Amino acid sequence: MGRKRRGPRRAALDAYLTFAIFAVVGVATWRLDQLLRLTLMWLALLLLTVAYAPGRKIQFGYRFSDLARGIVTGLLISLPVALLARDFLLATSKRLFPLDSSLMLFWALVLIMPAIEALYFRGFVQAEKGLLPAVLLYAGAAAPYFLPFTLGDYVQVLAVLVAGMGRLGFVYGYVRSLYGFGASLACQSVVHFVLFILPLLPQEFAGLVA
After folding, report:
1. For 51-55, which contacts have Cβ atoms below 8 Å and span 24 or more sequence positions?
2. Domain range annotation of the chain
3. Which tens digits make up the pLDDT trace of 171-183?
C-alpha cells in the first residue's frame, strides 16, 4: 500500500514577523486611550503567541527551589532601583499605566503582562532564536509601548526604558536558561511589583488612613 500523500507543509510563523505585527499594532493604536492601547497590544501579543506556538514546546515544569531563585533574583535587581529612583518610578508608573486602583495595576502588571511577555519572549523566541535576539526584541518592545508618551521632552525617558528593558530581558532570559521558565516568570513578576506597585503603596495607605 502506497504512502498517503500529505498536503503542502505550512510555513512556521517567524518570531521576527510576529514581533513586527505586534509593533504595527502599537503604532496603529497610537492615539487611543493608553489603557485601551495596552489591552490591545497585550491581546495581540497573546494571539501572536498562540499562532506562533503550534509545533513548539515549552517546559512548564518547575521546582520550588527554582521559583525561589527567580524571586530572589528579582528582588536583588529591583529593590536598589526602587530605593534610588522612587520618584522617577512613581511618575513613570502613573503616566504609563493610568489605573486608579493599585489592585488593578497589580493584576495587570504582576499577573497578566509578565505571563504574556514571558510566554512569547522567553518561552518561544529565546528557545528558537537564542538569548540575544530575545533580549533585543524585548528591549525593542519599549518603543511601541511607550513612544507616544516620551516624544519631545521625554525622549531621554524612552532611552532609559529601552536600556532598562534590555537589561531586565537579559536577566529574565538568563534565569530561564539556568532555572527554567517558571523561575523567569517569577523573577519578572517580582520586578514589576517592586518597580511599579511598591512606590504607590505609601500613597494608598495614606489615603486609607485619611
Report:
1. 51/13, 51/18, 52/13, 52/15, 52/18, 52/120, 52/124, 53/124, 55/12
2. 15-209
3. 999 999 999 999 9
